[in-house]
Design goal:
single chain; alpha/beta; Immunoglobulin-like; Aminopeptidase; five-stranded mixed sheet; 12 helices
């Protein structure tokens, strides 16, 4: 019996909330250790401790019990269903914040909402195309639009455009032919955006990127999926996922390096690295972000033509069958020895504190990659989704997994092999990272 196990058992031998919490966390650590070391005896003791501590804390322990029963060869415990009469009631309506009115002022614009705005509901980004003389300041607000999309001509800037960007966000865009600046303040239900001409802005062809000196403090790990014996998905004309994602990852590496970031690749060639060692590498470097690049695949030939598009995931127990299927495909090498309950219990232990930041990072990257590609191609938006991806487990920083397209779809497979298309993806990822840092500092 290890010292850690003795300590965990000691903390769960009292009816003391704080000590029970310490005991629960100790047993969680032991459970993770048992999974990594494939130690069945330790796993049983850890699960027994988790059940005991959970009961003391009045926390649901069903998942732990199911896993323990499976290990001990017991049949799953099922309780007879009680007949409950259905009561007729109306579900409470979820009230969403709504942009209801816009007033144009001299040098600023006022936006009125139903409820007070939080700073976290405002997502700001910039675009600058010097050759085309297009400069944009973009505000994505977590709200819905209370009127049809509008376009205004202003004296300060050429255009103000307001539209429903997606189901959850309103997009406000200020556009001009010369560099300009905006700033904002929140006054209860009112958002005020101030306009100023002639600001020195980035002359790059894409989103504004923070100064190189500031970027030099940021460490980013780019992870090209699969490699070596693990080819990943094999698609149209025998194209291999491991080759395409490495090519894209190297392009992302160059772009981020040019912007002053400290950038590392988990692999630079065609060799195998376990999923556990990828995040271990990022943790060792104390990276600020971990970006894993993959290509998707349809489950059967009949869906090769119909399944396509770009998707971005952040670590979380899957909520949809689609996310579970894609995760199973990416996880198959690393998790083949784990049971269903082990996977779910393990995923519930890790990265909870990073889920929100990872979600934000996924949104910024996904939105910008989509924007860059759609300048030249039509592409399906698969959305940002939670998913149980083993490669993201254990990352001590915001981490996302990007499925850049379906390698089994003939059109997307050809595009993914194209250097130009790979450049668009790489630029979108770099822009998304800059946007994330801009919005979260």
């Amino acid at each position: 019996m290890t010292k850690q196990l003795q300590v965990a058992q000691y903390y769960c031998s009292f009816k003391d909330h704080d000590k029970n919490i310490k005991g629960l966390n100790s047993f969680k650590s032991l459970y993770i250790k048992s999974l990594i070391n494939e130690d069945k005896v330790l796993k049983i003791k850890a699960l027994q401790g988790l059940i005991k501590c959970s009961k003391l804390l009045r926390i649901d322990s069903k998942e732990y019990q199911k896993e323990l029963d499976t290990l001990l060869g017991k049949k799953a415990r099922t309780k007879p269903k009680k007949h409950v009469e259905k009561k007729s009631f109306q579900k409470p309506k979820i009230v969403k914040n709504r942009l209801k009115k816009v007033i144009l002022r001299k040098g600023y614009v006022e936006f009125y909402f139903d409820f007070p705005l939080q700073k976290s509901a405002i997502h700001y980004s910039q675009l600058a195309y010097k050759n085309k003389r297009i400069y944009k300041d973009i505000y994505d607000i977590d709200a819905t639009l209370g009127f049809k999309r509008r376009t205004y001509r202003l004296k300060s800037v050429k255009y103000l455009k307001i539209a429903q960007y997606n189901k959850k966000q309103v997009r406000i865009v200020f556009e001009h032919t010369k560099p300009f600046a905006t700033s904002y303040k929140i006054v209860a239900e009112k958002l005020v955006i101030y306009l100023k001409k002639g600001s020195k802005k980035s002359s790059t062809k894409s989103l504004y990127v923070p100064p190189v000196i500031k970027n030099s403090k940021k460490v980013i790990v780019i992870d090209p999926g699969h490699g070596g014996k693990d080819s990943g998905a094999v698609g149209y004309k025998r194209k291999k996922e491991k080759d395409i994602v490495l090519q894209i990852a190297k392009r992302v590496y160059k772009k981020l390096k040019a912007q002053g970031y400290k950038v590392y690749l988990t692999r630079r060639g065609d060799y195998f690295i376990s999923l556990r060692n990828r995040t271990k590498f990022a943790n060792k470097l104390k990276a600020n972000l971990f970006i894993s690049i993959h290509a998707n695949a349809a489950p059967k030939k009949s869906k090769y033509l119909s399944m396509k598009g770009l998707e971005t995931f952040f670590l979380s127990p899957a909520r949809s069958e689609r996310a579970k299927r894609i995760a199973a495909l990416e996880n198959r090498v690393a998790m083949k020895h784990l049971s269903y309950y082990s996977k779910n219990v393990f995923l519930n232990f890790i990265n909870r504190e990073k889920t929100i930041q990872s979600n934000k990072l996924a949104i910024d990257i996904h939105r910008n990659v989509l924007y860059k590609i759609r300048q030249r191609y039509s592409v399906v938006d698969g959305g940002v989704r939670p998913g149980p991806f083993w490669v993201l487990v254990g990352a001590q920083m915001p981490a996302v997994l990007i499925e850049v397209g379906y390698i089994t779809n003939p059109t997307e497979a050809k595009r993914l092999s194209s250097p130009y298309y790979q450049e668009l993806i790489a630029e979108g990822i770099a822009v998304g990272i800059a946007s994330y840092f801009l919005n979260n500092e």
